[in-house]
From TrEMBL:
Protein known as: Simple sugar transport system permease protein
CDD domains assigned to the protein according to its UniProt record, in alphabetical order: TM_PBP1_transp_TpRbsC_like (cd06580)
Gene Ontology molecular functions: transmembrane transporter activity
GO CC, one annotated term: plasma membrane
Subcellular location per the Swiss-Prot or TrEMBL entry: Cell membrane
Organism of origin: Desulfosporosinus lacus DSM 15449
């Protein structure tokens, strides 16, 4: 159980990066439906940067830049060209899949054996990691896990206790009022999309160089969409995003544990692999009400 709970925290890390980014962006009215592509591009750039340089820091910086570029394209098309957010996001996701596969082969060819890097190591916090039960679960994680669980309460404070948060929430609820106050609504939305790109890039790189130490074109496998769903299920609130992330992280931890132990006598491994996605469908259907931002998915057109 200690292993499962520790793995829950770890596997929830990239999902929380994506979910928090999605919460902030969607509060301004922007559904970042390109999140799956941002995750994948981050995973690709993170691995390429980390492998070629020999530094995971360079890898994560490359992932942040790659996520930023994908988000910039999405934001420009949806915010400034007023195109449909869902259609644009799906198109970019498909583009990124082909682009990552092509560029990987251009750079590395077709390796006989998979190329690998040493993933992020765990960093036990002195004294705290020695606390019975809680120590191995909470205080024996990698640096990204510590960072995101600090960012989560800061995100909540920023959204609900600061003027910046009020502007972000107002841009998704009543953008006309924000415009009247002399604040550029399009710029606010674009900046939050860029933030989602940076955080999504880090989330994607977590899978390639933070956990697995390798890259494949199916490495993300829909986890960007799970982060997208966590935003909805968490009611566009960082608190809900944390709770949802832990639930999905636990499901993924169970899947990894069952695969590693080979306990498939009663249930096939494919069932456990599908468990996080089954949870997404079940929880979405069972949810009765949502506090959807009023202008979510609606382009803002300034009146003359």
């Amino acid at each position: 159980m200690i292993y499962l709970l520790s793995a829950t925290i770890m596997m929830g890390t990239p999902l929380l990066f994506g979910a928090l980014a999605e919460v902030i962006a969607e509060r301004t009215g922007m559904m970042v439906t390109a999140i799956e592509g941002i995750f994948l591009m981050g995973a690709w750039a993170g691995f390429v940067g980390g492998y070629l340089s020999g530094s995971l820091i360079v890898g994560f910086l490359a992932a942040m830049l790659a996520g930023l570029l994908v988000a910039s394209l999405y934001g420009w098309i949806c915010i400034y060209l007023k195109q449909h957010q869902v259609v644009t996001g799906v198109a970019i996701n498909l583009l990124v899949v082909g682009l990552c596969s092509f560029l990987y082969r251009v750079i590395f060819g077709v390796p006989i054996t998979p190329l690998t890097v040493n993933p992020l190591a765990t960093i036990p916090i002195p004294l705290l990691s020695e606390i019975p039960l809680l120590g191995p679960i909470l205080f024996n994680q990698n640096i990204l896990t510590y960072i995101i669980y600090v960012l989560a309460p800061l995100s909540y404070f920023m959204l609900y206790k600061t003027s910046i948060g009020l502007t972000i929430r107002s841009a998704g609820e009543n953008p006309e009022a924000v415009d009247v106050a002399g604040i550029n609504v399009l710029r606010v939305r674009f900046l939050t999309v860029l933030l989602a790109g940076v955080m999504g890039g880090v989330a994607g790189a977590f899978y390639s160089i933070g956990f697995l130490g390798m890259f494949t074109t199916n490495i993300i496998g829909g986890r960007g969409w799970i982060a997208f769903a966590i935003c909805f299920l968490g009611n566009w609130n960082p608190k809900g995003a944390v709770i949802g992330t832990l639930a999905f992280g636990f499901a993924e931890a169970i899947a990894i544990y069952m695969q590693s132990t080979g306990n498939s006598a009663l249930f096939p491994n494919e069932l456990f692999i599908a468990l996080p996605y089954i949870m997404t469908i079940v929880l979405t259907i069972s949810r009765k009400s949502f506090s959807v931002p009023a202008k979510l998915g609606v382009p803002y057109v300034k009146e003359n």
